[in-house]
């Protein structure tokens, strides 16, 4: 037999790992620093690491209490009902739950381009069709209501990413509200805040709950993850916060025990470790400012734990940087073959990345001609 027709489906391209690269180049993993997947340079919250060790002997049981406890802790953090918190196997899992809850076969889903690949993947898994709105490089990937609404055509779901991966741009809540208001009642606006902790912006939760002067809405959902600021990417833990009106749909769409005992215990410990998150966010801010100032190429302003850099030939620069021990993300798969994305590392990692990428750029410039678009040299501070 064969699986169903998957020709429309594409495999997710993750950033490359140290082990993988070291093996391929036949080098020692310790020679490399990985700044390709927006992981936390400080590792997990130490409290979460302790919780994981302490939970080891309990993993023969299904995660019932832990699941309920973490849901309650997150609900308390955001001051919402427990039912509104949809725990999942990573933010990606939460995207799937929203797809399951909302999409009928043939429904359209509007996603940003460039953008996070999993929105479209999940839509297709659930027999939806994917449409795109474009964030323009000439406009520094600015996000606003007009850009999205111009492409909107009655889509059942609209994805916004704020801060946006891979560009680092954000969208004001007023614009999110306008999009939700001007799209159909049956259109769900999903605001992916995977990098929300790194930005100086209020969560779009204000729109769901009717806070900060916004009217309460039942057509917005917010996505959050423990993978980035909390440093728990390997445990796979994320969640959606949805309006109270349909929060009970979770029970009918979730995979039983959506998050593991280890994940829930780690999450419970991490959520109380403010110090770790603050340190992580502080490091990201310093790192992205340093990269913007010192990289010898246009760097967009970012509110995430990464920066997008216009290097002309991403594949070549990423490969050469990798040969020198710095793994960055070639953004060709995002539709930006001239850009690399560099994750904010520790001070030492950031300095090494800047030094390495600058050296590679100098070499590429003095060697074969660069294919860089001259317009791209004019990235502004906006
Ligand atoms: C990392 C990321 C996520 C979620 O990742 P998980 O590891 O599955 O939690 C979601 N959206 C964007 C834009 C991301 O970059």
Automatic annotation (TrEMBL):
Ranges of residues in domain Aminotransferase class I/classII large: 31-356
PROSITE patterns in alphabetical order: AA_TRANSFER_CLASS_2
InterPro entries: Aminotrans_II_pyridoxalP_BS, Aminotransferase_I/II_large, HisP_aminotrans, HistidinolP_aminotransfase, PyrdxlP-dep_Trfase, PyrdxlP-dep_Trfase_major, PyrdxlP-dep_Trfase_small
Alphabetized Pfam families for the sequence: Aminotran_1_2
Pathway recorded for this protein: Amino-acid biosynthesis; L-histidine biosynthesis; L-histidine from 5-phospho-alpha-D-ribose 1-diphosphate: step 7/9
Cofactor: pyridoxal 5'-phosphate
Biased composition (Acidic residues): 366-382
Coiled coil: none
Source species, domain of life: Archaea
Spans annotated as Disordered: 363-382
Keyword Chaperone: no
EC number: 2.6.1.9
Catalyzed reactions: L-histidinol phosphate + 2-oxoglutarate = 3-(imidazol-4-yl)-2-oxopropyl phosphate + L-glutamate
GO function terms (MF aspect): histidinol-phosphate transaminase activity; pyridoxal phosphate binding
Modified residues annotated as N6-(pyridoxal phosphate)lysine in this record: 228
NCBIfam families from the UniProt entry: hisC
Recorded family membership: Belongs to the class-II pyridoxal-phosphate-dependent aminotransferase family. Histidinol-phosphate aminotransferase subfamily.
Protein name, entry field: Histidinol-phosphate aminotransferase
Taxonomic lineage: Archaea, Methanobacteriati, Methanobacteriota, Stenosarchaea group, Halobacteria
Gene: hisC
